[in-house]
Amino acid sequence: MTDGGAPRPDLGTGPIEDYTREGIAENLGTRIIGRYIRWHEVLPSTSDLAMSLAEIQVPEGTIVVAEEQTAGRGRLGRPWASPRGGVWLSVILRPGLPPPRAPLVGLAAAVAAARAIRTTTGLLARVKWPNDVLVDGRKVVGILLDAGPGAEWVVVGVGINANVPRSALPADAQSPAASLQDLLGGPVDRGVLVRALLRELERGYEELRAGGAASALRRWREMADTLGRIVRVETPAGAIEGMALDVDDAGALLVRRRDGEVHRVIAGDVKVRAVG
Ligand code: BT5
Q1: Span from the CA of 74 to the centroid of ligand 1 (angstroms)
Q2: Cα distance between residue 33 and residue 91, in whole Å
Q3: Atom of ligand 1 lying closest to residue 159 CA
Q4: CATH number belonging to domain 229-275
Q5: What is the pTM of this model?
Q6: Which of 34, 172, 192, 195 is the most exposed place for a label (fewest CB within 10 A)?
Q7: How confident is the model at residue 12 (pLDDT cuts 50, 70, 90)?
Q8: CB neighbour burial string for 150-172, b if at least 16 within 10 angstroms, e if fewer
């Protein structure tokens, strides 16, 4: 094929990805998730903006993306490092689940992120309760859920350390972090990754709404890094140590202590002590 000899400035020297609003929207093929995309160079937090939009009834599936966040949030008000090069986005959903079951949306999002990483990079991503995604025991994805009154809306914030230099990640020995770029030895195409994420999320979300907890939990268990291990869970009410048995139909973690008593943990931070 010839174009008459016109220069093709993007050949060979072009960007390795098309990580733009248009690049994500092109051939996305989802019905709900990502049908409206808000793109920002810099935001304090994509989840903060998405929550305000959810309050004013923007359509379900709207996503908010930023190249960089200046006040990215983790759970319990913890900071989330969000320099350029990562994937920082939030999705507005109206799952129609009773509030105690809203955490299932987070589990489904973690599965979607892990699957998207597996298919686009080949890395063996696994999920850690409740919503983290790990590769080789290091955290590459964090997920944050915010819900409106009665869980009328849920905002799922997804942070993926894609092309983030190691020096920009917190050096926290308790939960080591990594980026996909570190693990692969080169950058990933964030456009491809995000499209895969949104498609996987739509699939998981529709399954959750149609089939209830069972199918979402089955997918989560298949990828789980936590179950069958001796864990220590830091919860707001104190620490619990024991065998991580399973997740229940609201996404809570069931932990059997040494004395045999089974605890149901709704929120907490898990550390794996040993393989059970
Ligand atoms: C999370 O919290 O893992 C949820 C992170 C959600 C981030 C997304 S980005 C898009 C959206 N907009 C937001 O403002 N947030 C969401 P948590 O489990 O609490 O983990 C927080 C802890 O992880 C911190 O205390 C740090 O120790 C560590 N951390 C901070 N930044 C990190 C990073 N980029 N990668 C890995 N670990 C990090």
Answers
A1: 4
A2: 7
A3: 9
A4: 2.30.30.100
A5: 0.93
A6: 172
A7: very low
A8: ebebbbbbbbbbbbbeeeebeee
